[in-house]
Amino acid sequence: MARHPRERRSALWTPRPYGGLDRREFLRRTAMTALAVPTAGGLLAACGGDDDPKPAGSAIELARPDNPVRLPTKGSAIADDLPIESGPLKIYNWQDYANPEMLEKFEAEFDVKIEWTSFSGMDEAIQKLGTGAVDFDVFFPTIDRLATLVAQEHLQPLNLNYIPNLKNVWPELQDPFYDKGSQYSIPYVLWSDGIGWRADLVDKTPDDYDNGWDMLWDPAFEGKVWVIDDDRDTLALPIVRMGRVEDVNTDDRALLEQSLEALREIRGVQISAEAYQKVPEGSSPIHHAWSGDMLSAPGYLPDGVDATTLRFWDQPDGRGVIGSDAVSIMAGSKRPVLAHAFLNFILDTDNALLNMAWNGYQAPLNAIDADRLIADEFFPKNLSAAVVQQSDFDAGNQLMQLAPTVEKLWDDIFREFKAG
Amino acid sequence: MTALDPPRVTNPAQATFRFGRRGIAEWRAARPPRALWPFLASPGVLWLCAFFVVPFYAVLAMAGGTLDEFATPIPEWNPVAWNGEQILDAFRSVLPGGTNWNPMRRTVVYVVIALALCFVIAYPVAYYVARKAGRNKGLLLLLLLAPFWINYLMRMLAWINLLQTDGYVNDVLDPLPFVDPSEWLSGRSSTLILGLVYGYIPFLLLPLYAALDRIDGRLIEASRDLGIGPFRTFCQVTLPASRQGLLAAGAITALPMFGDYYTQDLLSRSPRTQMLGNQIEDALQQGASKQLGAGLVIVLSTFLTVLMAYYLWSTNRAAQEVR
Question: Is this complex's ipTM strictly greater than 0.85?
Answer without folding.
Answer: no
